Amino acid sequence: MTDGRAVSTVAKVLPLRSVAGGASTRMPPSDGSAVGTRTLPAPPAEAVELLEQIRRRLIDDVGSAAHLLRRRLAGDYEIDEFGYDEDFTQNVWYPLLRPLYRKWFRVEIRGMEHIPATGGALVVSNHAGVIPIDGTMLAVGVHDEHPAHRLVRMLVADFGFEYPGVSVLVRRTGNTLACQSDAELLLNNGDLVGVFPEGFKGIGKPFSERYKLQRFGRGGFVSAAMRTGTPIIPCSIVGSEEIYPKIGELTALARLLGAPYFPITPLFPHLGPLGLVPLPSKWLIEFGAPIHTADYPTAAADDPMELFEITDHVRETIQQNLYRLLARRRNVFY
Predict the structure, then answer these.
(1) How far apart are alpha carbons 176 and 80 in whole angstroms?
(2) Given a cut of 70, is residue 6 above it in pLDDT?
């Protein structure tokens, strides 16, 4: 026979198995205290606050998206004579670009005090990068960091309007055709206008010629500024040259596609769509002191020598600022 006292002692020590499920359970001790349970520590207050911020942000984002969708479906937005859609630009386009501006290129801007809070002004900048991303980064930077959150109305080459989808996007985000009549109309309206006088010569130049400004054309942008009496603000952008280092091009394919060039970079077209991801270069944007045109006589806007002199002055100012910013940046990616 089995000793009853021994069985009682073993039952207190060893876990009993339930007949139904086979799961092990432990008998509680006679003093009523729990055995085999663990009290989880409370999450840190910082983690709780972070989760609450994320929850509130998600609620706000979903609510904003729903409100935007209702507004767009109801047609409750305005488009100006150039096709600019402020509602779309502020609530869709800029939010899409901000991660690229803040996290990928980590753009730093200097000289914002040279951009007036009101009134017309012409921002003249260097142009580079194979794909004209520099224009979008410039626009986001001025809008987000200028005290008046000004919109830069870019003057875009004809090629930007040859494709239906691209043309609509260009117009809706506040840009227009790079012609003197449109430039003068915007400046007279008190808008901030951006122009890249290098055009495709700038963005399509080989990597070996990086940060060497190409010819600025015949000075049409200077004539527009002089006719409207608006200041010219030189702008220098460092970082755009390295996003797609162009080491060659396929001329025959470019002609077939009707494009000004078809670039070859270290990653494109070898890696396909992956090669279209821009390299995360460090960007610096600086606005120089304005060059005032209001004091020039009216006839100066039609004087080729006067236009050439001012154009060359603007170009040289941008070039010298580029060299200075390059020395300040020191490293391409940091």
Answers:
(1) 12
(2) no
